[in-house]
Amino acid sequence: MKKTGVVIVALMALGLAAPARGETYKTTYPMACSEMWPAVKEVLSNADNNYEVKKMDEAQMSAAYNVKHNIHVNITGAILQRTNKVKLVPKGDASCEMQVVSNYSGPEHNDQGDFKARVEKSLAKMKAAKPSEPTKAEVPAKPAEPAKPTNPGE
């Protein structure tokens, strides 16, 4: 009976530890990371998003943060809540890969998906606020220079 109890405890510990490992989710965007970083920072600094930034590295375009969940439906989600991480990795001149390391926090939460959706919403908001480059047809023509008066005495 003693061995059975030890095996059960060991299996339970493995069952709890397995979801605690963070998985890295990667999404590539067609823009420079320097254009994307302000959106990531805006999401992390927005009080409505319930993030608590633990560490932010501007030069590396990375951050470690906790998600402040109001409730967990089960005890496993509360116990397994860990620090999430985000890092932007340049992929060539025109692409940026957002890497989010998100730990399991219970079946009722999708921390990685929620974070990604908020960043994309912030990117869309920033793009809408940014004035677009005028097309050639929209650029007003330069007015013609006024004719120089002729000198009547010549």
**How much helix, percentage-wise, in residues?**
25-40%
Rg of Cα set: 27 Å
Fold-level CATH name of the domain at 36-128: TATA-Binding Protein
Average the pLDDT over all residues and give the rounded result.
Answer: 76
Largest sheet: 5 strands, antiparallel
Q: CATH architecture of the domain at 36-128, please?
A: 2-Layer Sandwich
CATH class of the domain at 36-128: Alpha Beta
The low-confidence parts are 9-20
- Structural classification: alpha+beta
Spatial arrangement of strands, main beta sheet:
1-5-4-3-2
Which descriptor suits the 3D outline?
Answer: elongated
Overall number of strands: 5
Beta-sheet strand percentage? Answer: 15-25%
The SSE order reads HEHEEHEEH
Work out the helix count: 4
Distance between the termini: 123 Å
Describe the structure in your own words.
With 154 residues, the chain is of the alpha+beta class. It has a domain at 36-128: TATA-Binding Protein (2-Layer Sandwich), CATH 3.30.310. It is built from 4 helices and 5 strands; from the N terminus they run αβαββαββα. Strands 1-5-4-3-2 form a 5-stranded antiparallel beta sheet, with helices on one face.
Topology:
Layout: H1 2-17, E1 23-29, H2 33-45, E2 51-57, E3 62-67, H3 75-79, E4 84-91, E5 95-102, H4 111-129
Antiparallel strand pairs: 1-5, 2-3, 3-4, 4-5
Helix pairs in contact: 2-4
Please tag this protein with its features.
single chain; 154 residues; TATA-Binding Protein; five-stranded antiparallel sheet; elongated
Summarize, please.
This protein has 154 residues and is an alpha+beta fold.
